[in-house]
Amino acid sequence: MRDEKATSAGWSPRTRLVHAGTRRSSFAETSEAIYLTQSFVYPSAEAAEARFIKAGEDEFIYARYGNPTVRMFEERMAALEGAEDAFATASGMAAVHGALFAALKAGDHIVSAKALFGSCLYIVETLLPRFGVEVSFVDGADLAAWQAAIRPETKLVFLESISNPTLEVIDIAGVAALAHAQGALVVVDNVFATPVFQRSLDLGADVVIYSATKHIDGQGRCLGGVVLGTRDFVRGVLEPFLKHTGGALSPFNAWVLLKGLETLDLRVRAQAAAAASIAAALQGHPALARLIYPGLPDHPQHALSARQMETGGTMLSLDLRGGKAAAFRFLNALEIVLISNNLGDAKSLVTHPATTTHQRLTPDQRAGLGISDGLVRLSVGLEDAADLTADLRRALDAAL
Q: 232: Cβ–Cβ under 8 A, 6 or more apart, which residues?
C-alpha cells in the first residue's frame, strides 16, 4: 500500500531522498520491501481484463512493465529531480538507448554534442544513422555552433551536461532556448553533475537521464538507469518502447538503489569538497600539462559551472606531460586510488580513457575531443582528502 506520508512535495531534497515514494505492505516494514516477482495475480478474469486496459496506480501486470520496488525508486527519483514521472532501466546505457530510440524514427534529425562517453557516442554516431536518423555533431560549449546546427526539422538535441572525460560544461539553458525555438526536445545525460547538484529540468531540459550505477548506487554494487520527464513522455512515448524491448530494472537492484539514495546527498557533497581540495593541491604539479576541474577558476566554463551546479562536482581529469607512459607510471604508483572504469563510487577510482572507455575511437577522434594519451579521469571517493592528496602527489612524482 502507498504510504501517504511519503508523498509530500514540500520536503527538502535530503528528506525526499529518504522517504519519497515509499510503499509499505500490510506488515508496515521500515525498510522498503523487495518484491521479487515476475508477475502478479488477479482476483478474477474480469480484473485481469480491466488491468490490461488500464492499470491503476498501485496495480502491476508484469515485472517488465513495472514492479512495486522499482516504482518506489522511480517515484523517489522523480521527487528529487522535480519531474512528473520516471522509468527505471537495467543500466544507464539502457536509459540512453531507450530515451533516444523511443523519441526518434527514420528521417528525423538530431543535434548532439560531440564530447560523449564512448557507449553514448556509439549509439548516436553508429546506431541511430543505421536506423535512418540524421545526426549533426557540434562543439557542445559553443552556443553559436548549436544555433547553426539546429534546424526547423530537428527533432531532438542530446548532450552530457558535463562531458566524459574532459569535463566540458554545457550551457543547458542556452541550448534549450535554441532547441525549443525550433520545437526540438532537449535530452540531457546528467550523470557527472548528479541530481543533487543540478536540476536540469529547471534549466530547460525536457528529458533527464542517469546511470544509477554511478553516484546513485555509489558503492559499486549493481547496474541501473532512469529516465525522467513529463508524464506524457515517460508513459506515452518511453514506456511503450521499453516495456516491449525489455530494458527493465531488477527489483533487487531497485532496492539497492533506494538504499543508495538515502545517503546520496551526504556522499556527493563530501566527495565534491574533497575533489575541490585535491584539485587545488595538485594544480601546478610539474608532471601535469593541465588539470581539469570545473570548480577551479581556470576552467573555461567555471562561471557557468558555478551558476548551474553550485560545486565543481566529484570528478577531475589530469593530463600528464609524458603521455601514455607517464600516465601508466602514475596509475601503477597509486596505493589508495583504484584503477577502474567506474565512477561515483565511495572508493576513489581512476582510469585512462584512451585505452579504456574511449579506446575504440581513432587517435584523431580522441584528439578532437581533447582526450590525450596522458589524460586520466579521477572519480573522488569518500576517503580522507589528505590521504588521497598524498597518494596522488606520490604517484605524480613517480610519473616524472
A: none
Q: Distance between CA atoms of 98 and 225, rounded to whole angstroms?
A: 10
> What is d(CA 379, CA 164) in angstroms, rounded to the nearest whole number?
11
The amino acid occupying position 65 is Y
- Contact predicate 302/359, CB 8 Å: no
Give the 3-state secondary structure percentages of the chain, helix then strand then coil, rounded to 5. 45, 15, 40
pLDDT of residue 10: 84
Residues of the chain with pLDDT under 70: 1-9
Q: Does domain 265-399 have CATH number 3.40.50.300?
A: no
Give yes or no for a contact between 190 and 208, defined as CB atoms under 8 angstroms apart.
yes
Q: Which amino acid is at 60?
A: F
Which residues, including other chains, have CB under 8 Å from residue 145's CB and lie 6 or more apart? Answer: 138, 139
Q: Which amino acid is at 166?
A: T
Confirm if 355 and 379 have CB atoms less than 8 A apart: no
Could you tell me if 195 and 77 are in contact, meaning their C-beta atoms sit under 8 angstroms apart?
Answer: yes
Compute the distance between CA of residue 41 and CA of residue 8 in angstroms, rounded to an integer.
Answer: 30
Domains of the chain, by residue range, sit at: 4-260, 265-399
Alpha helices in the chain (DSSP H): 13-19, 45-53, 68-81, 92-103, 118-122, 128-130, 143-149, 172-181, 194-197, 231, 239-245, 251-282, 302-309, 323-333, 363-369, 385-399
Pick the CATH number of 4-260 from 3.40.50.2020, 3.30.420.10, 3.40.640.10, 3.10.310.10: 3.40.640.10
Three-state helix/strand/coil letters over 149-171: HCCCCEEEEEEECECCCCCCECC
Spell 254-274 as b/e; 16+ CB within 10 A means b: bbbbbebbbbbbebbbbbbbb
pLDDT at 4: 46
Specify the pTM: 0.95
CA–CA distance, 209 with 155 (Å, rounded to integer): 18
Q: What is the pLDDT of residues 78-121, one digit of tens each?
A: 999 999 999 999 999 999 999 999 999 999 999 999 999 989 99
Domains 4-260 and 265-399 fall in the same CATH topology: no
Query: 206-229: string of b/e by CB count within 10 Å (b at 16+)?
Result: bbbbbbbbbbbbbbeebbbbbbbb
